[in-house]
Design brief:
By secondary structure, this protein is of the alpha+beta class. It has one domain: Gcn5-related N-acetyltransferase (GNAT) (Aminopeptidase). Helices cover 24% and strands 36% of the residues. The chain has four helices and eight strands. α1 crosses α2. The relative contact order is 0.15. The chain binds coenzyme A. The site of coenzyme A has 22 residues, from β5, α3, β6 and α4. The site of coenzyme A (COA) has 22 residues, from β5, α3, β6 and α4.
Length: 180
């Protein structure tokens, strides 16, 4: 596959998908912070606390077994997808699984960019020998549920009250897709 992929979003803007580099750290943080307290995603909250830790995280990552993909419009990162080896690759038993989370700036949602990022990640996963993709999604996040079911992910069960945010509890759907 080509490492760099370009396409037109539904608003006509050209989007470039490419793996991120350490120098994208500031822009990634900005893209992730754009939705303030939305917290509709989980995986990417493991990192990205500040620019320095983000930079460090990208530079020390094993890029053979993990993908950090940026969506770039007019030179600015507008979204990021993380596809991370299960259990940080520490367990041989789960090393074939890649866990996916993604996030776009609010103004760039609903334009087909998330779907393209997911397609990119699926191709990348196959080429890197992974056998399964997983995603964890809040039951309230209808757009994300649609995104993953459109890409043939299936529901593998619900974990009740999996997250507490303030005084609210959220159920989480585990979705998975096997790769041939
Ligand atoms: C979830 C998210 C990544 C989806 O990316 P996106 O670029 O907005 O999604 P797309 O435009 O590719 O649309 C994907 C599907 O979502 C559905 N969708 C699009 N807009 C929608 C809306 N307003 N409401 C409900 N579903 C919607 C459609 O089924 C669409 O597929 P289709 O165009 O083939 O019908 C993005 O909206 C986002 O960053 N949300 C906040 C963070 C988040 O929730 N991350 C996911 C957690 S893992």
């Amino acid at each position: 596959m080509d490492e760099i992929c370009k396409f037109l979003a539904k608003n006509g803007e050209e989007v470039t998908l490419r793996p991120v580099i350490s120098d994208d750290a500031t822009q990634i943080i900005n893209a992730l912070r754009s939705a303030s307290q939305e917290r509709s995603y989980v995986l990417m909250e493991q990192y990205g606390k500040d620019v320095e830790s983000e930079r460090h995280y990208i530079s020390r990552m094993d890029h053979r077994n993990n993908l950090l993909l940026g969506a770039v419009v007019s030179g600015a990162v507008v979204g990021c997808l993380a596809a991370l080896q299960a259990d940080e690759g520490r367990r041989e038993e789960t090393a074939h699984i890649l866990q996916i989370g993604l996030h776009l700036k609010q103004t760039y949602r609903g334009l087909g960019i998330g779907s393209q990022m997911l397609q990119y990640a699926m191709t990348w996963a196959k080429e890197h020998g992974f056998k399964k993709l997983e995603a964890s999604i809040f039951t309230t996040n209808k757009r994300s549920l649609n995104l993953f079911s459109n890409a043939d992910f299936t529901d593998e069960g619900i974990r009740r009250k999996r997250f507490r945010i303030g005084s609210d509890y959220f159920d989480e759907v585990c979705m998975g897709r096997l790769l041939e």
